[in-house]
Design goal:
alpha/beta, three-stranded parallel β-sheet, 22% strand, globular
Length: 65
């Protein structure tokens, strides 16, 4: 099984979270795609791009609530 973990350096290389997720979907159709986000704006973008998993990196407890 192939899976993708998209982190900040991959997002930077692709130009955006959306582009990184789309590229991963093109490379391995049907495989698991996980993306790491560091704030609510990135979370909103990731949700719109529909990865399989979203990892919340260093979110504070109040932000999580």
């Amino acid at each position: 099984m192939i899976a993708f973990l998209i982190k900040e350096n991959h997002i930077a290389a692709c130009g955006s979270i959306t582009n990184a997720i789309q590229r991963a979907k093109q490379l391995a159709t049907g495989q698991i795609i996980e993306v790491e986000v560091t704030n609510l704006a990135e979370l909103a973008e990731a949700l719109a791009a529909k990865p399989d998993v979203i990892m919340l990196d260093n979110f504070s407890l109040p932000t999580l609530q």
